[in-house]
Amino acid sequence: MEILSLLGQGFATSLLPLNIGIVIVGVTLGLFIGAMPGLGSVNGVAIVLPLTFIVPPASAIIFLAALYYGAMYGGAISSILLGIPGSSTAVATTFDGRPLAQQGKAGLALIAAAGASFVGGTVSVILFTLFAVPLADFALKFGPAENFALVLLAFTTFVGLGGDDALKTILMICLGLVLSTVGLDLITGQPRLVFFDMPGFYAGISFLVLAIGVYGIGEVLWTLEKSRTAPTVTPARVTYAELRAAFVTLARTWKTMVSGSVMGFFVGMLPAAGATPASLMAYGIAKSTSKQPETFGKGNVEGVVAPETANNAASTGSLLPMLSLGIPGSPTTALLLGGMVMWGLMPGPMLFAEQADFVWGLISSLYTANLAAVLINLALIPLFVWALKMPFSVLCTIVLVLCIVGGYAPGQRMHDVWLILGFGVAGYLLRKADYPMAPLVLALVLGPVMEQSFRQALIAAQGDVTTFVTRPLSGTFIALAAVFFLLPLASKLRKRRVSRPV
Amino acid sequence: MLKSLLKPESLIAAALMGLAAYLMWHATVLPIGWDGARGPGGGAFPFWLSAIMFVAAAGIFLRSVLAGVRPEDLKPFFEPGMLGPVLAVTLALGLTILLMPIVGAYIAIPLFMLWYLRFFGRNGWLVTLSLTLTTPVALFFFFEVALLILLPKGFTEPLFFPLYAMFF
User: Fold this and answer.
1) HSE toward the beta carbon, residue A105, CA cutoff 13 A
2) What share of chain A is helix, strand, coil (3-state, %, to 5)?
3) A45, A193, B13, B26: which could join A182 in a potential S-S bond, CB 3.0 to 4.6 Å?
4) Inter-CA distances, B8 with A172, A190, B63, B65, B68, Å
5) pLDDT of the residue at A405
């Protein structure tokens, strides 16, 4: 019951007129960003983060979380109306959403997606509320050795579960970690990796510079290359009668919604997994447990409901380790974490004790953001149809200008703007060669924590490396990390054994 | 052999090997070894991580070269005909950033938008001019007036003095 009173106090913060307004603006902007093909929550948060300096830090985080939520809802819109996923998290929504739209049932698909997102969001926010405090309490026992082991574990999940090439993933993690060491040594304060003696590197490389480069400029270049012709927008109109009929259909899929929500939440907590695999898995489960699996892919509402509940639940799930452990569960939450550190709100168990008002304000704002998102989503459908017809060059221009100005604003250095362009082009080329970007961004954000906790743990243990394995919690994390690290090797061996004729 | 060396996959891996080696060399400025009871020195973390990066890049390089040229490697790295637009936008961005400290953000950014919207994106003049003219005003009020972040102005700085007097 203590949680309820804390949550009640949180609502006292999140229901302030400023914060309600912020949630509404954030969700609406997120819906539009999510609906734009190519742009997802991570691009939205990266590009918009410098603009949030205009409100106090706590409101800025609430705004970005609302934008994250809105973008998760919005992804379904272009999946259904264009047949192009609004972001990778909405890929599975195209499987049945597009056929439904082609059958003239775009309205039904959009309502089902919004309704399912709302259920996924709500179930997962309730789970979040229940798990946040116990997890933070557990993490209070962590010392530097445990923190190091946990970050290591987060990285190895990318190698074991990320699905990308293991060598390329390892390379990107190391590159991100090395880039995070640019500037001044955390312990001795000596300058290091100051390339070409440029003064700009003394301040280090901000996560924001990398994120705006990779997810802003890199994304525009990527989309520019891939989009030769403009896709056609399926018209959609939603009437009150349709809305009622759609909710009746939706209510019949409650089993799919519940399983998608719970699974999405837990998959979302893993740094390497997140919303994209969660939605694909939910789609697969819904199809295999369905009585008519053959109707999937041909316009089955359940095929829209399953991924949409899962991706919204996963986005909430990825907030849980970010807030209570300080380990982000997705690239978007890595950016939120970077933003919080920048504003002096260090995520982790101490945040729950020291900034309880902020924590519960944020958690309760997830409830209001979820409600706002479903209402705005349904109300603005005609506007999304109009926005999707906007010329692509208009969107690109706005994004690129925001990248330049937003990259300049935080540090007010042209140096950063040049770095953004460099990271944008390099990120675009590496992405074309199948190098994963999420581990790079996560590593840059977590690098300082990892190095500091590693060196602090060693100083505390008088240079004894075995401290990482002899401490029970830290040892468990390291053992788990070893398992994840060896997973790709094991599966390769198994494949070889299967393919060899006996 | 030469053909598999020149595959994009091999070339990118080779470039990353070079980058990793450069980072390793840079990290040796600070001690990279073990400093008795205090643990690793300031250069150790970047040095050894760059070393792992080098090994990973070398692994990708060798794997790519030894695999030879497979049918999927013959696909062009860039979508045919799309390298031009990507290069054009990159160059335009570079030029804009170069111009910002000289002519100021309020000339460089509208110029970029004018080029992108009218000449690259082939939009009508109405769309082009309405966006090109309103963006600087919006940027000024958002960043300079509300956030007190001054964007670079170059030689156009004196033109802003009356505006500063009005808003600050």
Assistant:
1) 18
2) 80, 0, 20
3) A193
4) 18, 38, 13, 11, 12
5) 93
Residue A499 lies in a domain: no
| Long-range CB contacts for residues A221-224, cutoff 8 Å, separation at least 24 | A221/A424, A221/A425, A221/A428, A221/B86, A221/B89, A221/B90, A222/A38, A222/A428, A222/A431, A222/A432, A223/A37, A223/A38, A223/A392, A223/A396, A224/A396, A224/B82, A224/B85, A224/B86, A224/B89
SS3 A15: coil
At A183, phi and psi to the nearest 5?
115, -130
Distance CA A325, CA A331 (A): 16
* Nearest in space to A110 (alpha carbons), one of A87, A93, A89: A93
Say which residues have a Cβ less than 8 Å from residue A39's Cβ, sequence separation at least 6.
Answer: A33, A71, A86, A87, A219, A395, A399
Residues from chain A that touch B134, judged by Cβ atoms under 8 A, are none
Average pLDDT for residues A486-498, to the nearest whole number? Answer: 75
Residue B132 is which amino acid? T
Q: How far is B26 from chain A (nearest CA, A)?
A: 6
**What confidence category does residue A188 fall into, taking pLDDT thresholds of 50, 70 and 90?**
confident
Residues A347-401: tens digit of each pLDDT: 888 898 888 889 999 999 999 999 999 999 999 988 888 888 888 889 899 999 9
Closest CA to B43 of A440, A467, A186: A186
Report which of residues A231 and B17 the model is more confident about.
B17
For residue B43, give the nearest of A192, A412, A454 by CB distance.
A192
Pick from A170, A116, A144, A195: nearest CA to A326: A144
Domain that holds residue A113: 2-490
CA A60/CA A339 separation, integer angstroms? 9
> Could you report the predicted ipTM of this complex, rounded to two decimals?
0.93
Q: How far apart are the CA of B67 and the nearest CA of chain A, in angstroms?
A: 15
For A463, the closest of B29, B36, B82 (CB atoms) is: B36
Q: Is residue A496 a part of any domain in this protein?
A: no
Exposure string of B55-82, with b = 16+ CB inside 10 Å and e = fewer, is bbbbbbbeebbeeeeeeebeeeeebeeb
Q: With contacts defined as CB-CB under 8 Å, which chain B residues touch A168?
A: 56, 60
From residue A90, give the alpha-carbon distance in Å to each of A74, A192, A270, A347: 9, 42, 18, 28
* DSSP code per residue over B82-138: -HHHHHHHHHHHHHHHHHHHHH-HHHHHHHHHHIIIIIIS---HHHHHHHHHHHHHH
Q: Is-contact A425 B90, C-beta < 8 A?
A: yes
- Contact state of A404 with B151 under an 8 Å Cβ cutoff: no
Give per-residue pLDDT as tens, A13-39: 888 899 999 999 999 999 999 888 878
CB contact at 8 A, A334 and A173: no
Inter-chain contact B49–A174, Cβ cutoff 8 Å? Answer: yes
Is the CB of B46 less than 8 angstroms away from the CB of A178? yes
Q: What is the pLDDT of residues A200-218, one digit of tens each?
A: 888 889 889 999 999 999 9
A350 part of a folded domain: yes
Other Cβ atoms less than 10 A from the Cβ of A497: the count is 9
Give CA–CA dist A390/A383, Å, rounded.
11
Q: What residue segments make up the domains of chain B, in order of their start?
A: 2-74, 83-167
**Domains identified in chain A, total number:** 1
What confidence tier does A501 reach under pLDDT thresholds 50, 70, 90? very low
The answer as to whether A122 is a domain residue is yes
